[in-house]
């Protein structure tokens, strides 16, 4: 596959070695063969939203003081990475039926009113249109798409909220039940992208 310009890779697994979501993400990145890739490894931690962050975010950009600008610096960097990407690749495990806290922290940093979405008379409108997203998800027991999967529906929704509607999910789910077959099947799906 060619003509892929810029990819933003998000790794949410706390595990570096032996991570199924990282293995899937590696395979997809190799398949896409991008011109440029920016990697954001969330195992290295992001700050959480604080009262000062919220205050800075809701202060008009032209009126922010140096402290408020510093408070939003990480968020501004993450938002810039998203805008620069043509394709977003998120590799995530399911922890306790949902996404890891590190991935939620990333979402909180990038889902920003007036930056990545805005409100109109017809409701919210995402500002990151024209992008493709892949979610590569691994789980031990949770079946993707089941009533106990609180990860993939949430990720699809929040990506759509910021304007990314073209989302493909590849799952290596129920690995504690299905064993190696789950990862093998997901890798086959990646190879068909």
Question: Would you mind describing this structure in some detail?
Answer:
This protein is α/β, with parallel strands linked by helices and 193 residues long. It has eight helices and seven strands. It has helices spanning 20-32, 51-57, 66-71, 73-84, 101-110, 152-161, 175-178, 180-191, and strands spanning 6-11, 36-41, 87-93, 117-120, 123-126, 132-138, 166-172. The strands form two sheets. It has a five-stranded parallel β-sheet, with helices on both faces. Strands 4-5 form a two-stranded antiparallel sheet. A hairpin with a 2-residue loop joins β4 and β5 (123-126). α1 (20-32) packs parallel to α8 (180-191). The protein is globular and about 55 Å long. The model has no long low-confidence stretch (mean pLDDT 95).
């Amino acid at each position: 596959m060619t003509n892929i310009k810029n990819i933003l890779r998000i790794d949410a697994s706390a595990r570096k070695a032996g991570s199924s979501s990282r293995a899937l993400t590696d395979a997809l990145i190799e398949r896409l063969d991008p011109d440029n890739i920016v990697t954001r490894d969330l195992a290295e931690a992001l700050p959480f939203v604080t009262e000062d962050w919220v205050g800075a975010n809701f202060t008009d950009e032209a009126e922010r003081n140096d402290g408020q600008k510093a408070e939003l610096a990480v968020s501004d960097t993450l938002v810039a990475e998203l805008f620069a990407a043509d394709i977003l690749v998120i590799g995530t495990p399911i922890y306790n039926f949902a996404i890891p806290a590190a991935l939620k922290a990333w979402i909180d940093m990038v889902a920003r009113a007036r930056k990545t979405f805005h409100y109109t008379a017809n409701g919210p409108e995402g500002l990151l249109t024209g992008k493709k997203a892949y979610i590569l998800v691994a789980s031990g027991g949770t079946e993707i798409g089941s009533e106990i999967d609180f990860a993939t529906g949430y990720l699809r929704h929040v990506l759509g909220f910021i304007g990314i509607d073209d989302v493909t999910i590849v799952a290596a789910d129920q690995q504690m039940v299905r064993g190696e077959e789950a990862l093998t099947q997901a890798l086959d799906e990646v190879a068909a992208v």
